[in-house]
Amino acid sequence: MLSETQQQKCVGNGVRASFAEAYPTAGRPSVCRVPGRINLIGEHVDYNGLPVLPMAIDRDTVIAYAPRTDGQIHLHNAGPDFDPDWFTNGPHISPSPAGAWTNYVKAAVVGLNEAYAPAAYPGMDLYVAGEVPVAAGLSSSTSLVVASALAYLDVLGLRLDVDVDRIELATLLAEAEHYVGTRGGGMDHAILLLGKRGHACKIDFIPMRVEETPLFDDYVVVACHTMVRAHKTGESMHRYNEGPVTCRLLCALVEAEAREAYGDEVELSVLGDLWYGPLCLTDAEARALIDRATPEPYTTLNAASRRLGISVEQIRKRWLGDLPEPPEGFTLQARARHQLTEYERVERARDLLLAGDVAGFGELMYASHASCAGDYRVSCAELDALVDIARDAGAVGARMTGAGFGGCTVNLVHAAQVEPFRAAMHARYYAPRGVAIEDLDTVVLAARPADGAGYAND
């Protein structure tokens, strides 16, 4: 069996060979690698500044890259669904059409240009390859953003961990990815840069800090793909953005309650400021404010307008954009309940990891999925089915992971039960959908916690 260093060397040599075919006149490229991630618990809370508990996984996005002298950035991708492309670097880079993979590279370049204001805007050739499944909820898109950023930092002459701090880079790239059109939080960027082999990482955001926590001995994290690809384009982008966008309105309503309770000087950027900002509220105090802000199951824009003392048009301009209003109003009460309970589950999960209580941790995973499905409405029939089957097949815990609406579940399985678990998942979910047993590895992935991003050894 190859060591991790040997594996990286083989991957590096392979992507260099592909780079040479794509760019026959370029010099020898450098290589960077960025893992995917599985979020164990803490879903759809990072954009509210609340903690999460993910792990980086031993599946990488890899980029071979070399500088150019003409300011152009050329892109090739080993994936057959991604056409070659190029754009000119500069102070203003227009987005490609929605859904174009090029936008994730552009997001990194634009973010670093704004942060470091280079005197010149260098070009580079990029060849992208890797093993992170696309649209599976395992952070393939963000791994491309981070890998593109590492390549561009090197071309700019900036050294990771010397000139550029990983936490600062994670924060920068979380904001930069908004260029693509999604309004997520900072979890993915943080864990992809700061992951630790053999550990999960509890990530807090106000300020960002990472606590490495060893995983359970003798248990394996298994991802099961629904075979529903969780795209973030078109109508799917609206569904994905509904959580972050409506939580901005929720935060404004909570801020109004906080000002009545604690004074007009109170300002909330995100819900997490209730606990981690100047107010330093207890859980009970924060819950009371949120309950007063969402007294009814549904909140219409007219009701929010009356409470905030501004027009519906101003609410849309500040927080909602063109997000359609459901006929009965937005489910802010249930969304708030998910934020509160998921925050509690993450804090409890970290304690259970340290205590070695795998059964308690697993039950939190099941509870998290129920909240994602019921209160936050980001699950789907296929995710729910996989979770139910996993429980019957012996998983200690199971839940959706990632944005939802498809993608993968994450399952905690005893090492001795992995093969029986895989067999049960195949018999009850994958075989009826036409997946042959010899192809099961394409949809069921046993993942090891891996180190964060870096540059491949020669």
Give an overview of the whole structure:
This protein is an alpha+beta fold. Among the domains are: 4-37 and 54-195 and 451-455, 2-Layer Sandwich (Ribosomal Protein S5, domain 2); 234-330, no CATH class. It contains 14 helices and 12 strands. The strands form 3 sheets. It has a 6-stranded mixed beta sheet with strand order 4-3-5-2-1-12, sandwiched between helices. The chain has a 4-stranded antiparallel beta sheet with strand order 9-10-8-11. α2 packs across α3, α2 (102-116) crosses α4 (166-176) and α11 (332-355) runs antiparallel to α12. The longest helix has 29 residues, at 234-262. Mean pLDDT is 94; it is low at 1-7.
Features of the shown structure:
458 residues, globular, Ribosomal Protein S5, domain 2, alpha+beta, six-stranded mixed sheet, four-stranded antiparallel sheet
Could you say which overall geometry the principal axes of the C-alpha atoms support? globular
CA-to-CA gap between the ends? 19 Å
Largest sheet: 6 strands, mixed
Oligomeric form: single chain
Main sheet: strand order: 4-3-5-2-1-12
Order of helices and strands: HEEEEHEHHHEEEHHHHHHHHEEHEE
CATH class assignment of the domain at 4-37 and 54-195 and 451-455: Alpha Beta
The helix count comes to 14
What would you report as the Rg, rounded to the nearest angstrom?
A: 22 Å
Task: Catalogue the unreliable spans.
Answer: 1-7
Structural class: alpha+beta
Q: What would the CATH topology of the domain at 4-37 and 54-195 and 451-455 be?
A: Ribosomal Protein S5, domain 2
CATH level-two architecture of the domain at 4-37 and 54-195 and 451-455: 2-Layer Sandwich
What is the overall pLDDT average? Answer: 94
Percent helix among the residues? 40-55%
Beta-strand residue fraction: 15-25%
Strand tally is 12
